[in-house]
Write a structure and sequence with these properties.
Elements: E1 5-10, H1 14-24, E2 30-36, H2 39-49, E3 53-57, H3 65-74, E4 80-85, H4 90-98, E5 103-106, H5 110-122, E6 127-128, H6 133-149, H7 158-168, H8 173-180, H9 184-197, H10 205-212
Parallel strand pairs: 1-2, 1-3, 3-4, 4-5, 5-6
Helix pairs in contact: 1-5, 2-3, 7-9, 7-10, 8-9
């Protein structure tokens, strides 16, 4: 028997939550364990119930969806996310992808997409509303072009790539060390190696590079 996927759902509009619940509950393998109308409550419920998937509206009072995900990552709470949003702007989409969120569903198509999106992210597969496919293609194209312009990126180890992303998020070496369970000195060594491979010189060059190219990393 397939194990049920436990879900916490958060949206500040009760009517939206009701409609999504009706669609989700048509699938016997999906179970909504809690609902929230704001980000702070959503965070508390996720921590309490430890669901497999959380459906989060991006625009919520107290804490928006981005803030909730960042706090979940900070607390090391492992849950897959489906962002629910009215935004189809590329900047918002890029921000969601930069957070590592696998699901991004437009409210206009949520009724038809929500069940598939939950099952997809629960299985570690990305899901985007079909209307967003052009944004994904644009992101991939830019990333490919960026890698051609910066051949040194291919020389970076997986750990160095993670550290580069952390630097783009304005994290200090101490914070990066805590995230990766390595020492401050080890992080500094990695930073030096990254700068050498990317031919970056000067104390601020690496930070400037990471922040400038955050969406491509």
């Amino acid at each position: 028997m397939t194990e049920q996927i436990r879900i916490v759902m958060a949206d500040d509009h009760p009517i939206v939550r009701q409609g999504l619940r009706q669609m989700i509950e048509t699938d016997k393998n999906l179970s909504i364990v809690a609902e929230a109308g704001d980000g702070q409550t959503a965070l508390e419920l996720i921590e309490k119930h430890q669901p497999g998937v959380t459906v989060l509206d991006i625009d919520m009072p107290k804490m928006d969806g981005f803030a909730v995900v960042r706090e979940l990552q900070k607390r090391r709470i492992n849950v897959e996310i489906v962002f629910l949003t009215m935004h189809s702007e590329e900047e918002i989409f890029q921000a969601a992808m930069d957070l590592g969120v696998k699901g991004y569903v437009l409210k206009d198509s949520a009724v038809t997409d929500i069940v598939s999106s939950i099952k997809s992210v629960a299985a570690q597969r990305p899901f985007l509303s079909p209307a967003l496919s052009a944004l994904l293609l644009n992101r991939r194209r830019r990333n490919e072009e960026f890698e051609k312009e910066q051949p040194g990126l291919h020389l970076l180890t997986p750990t160095e790539k993670r550290i580069l992303k952390f630097i783009a998020e304005d994290k200090t070496s101490k914070q990066i060390g805590e995230e990766l369970f390595i020492s401050y000195r080890t992080v500094e060594t990695h930073r030096a190696n990254i700068s050498r491979k990317l031919d970056l010189r000067g104390s601020l060059a690496l930070v400037k590079f990471a922040v400038t190219h955050k969406s491509e990393l």
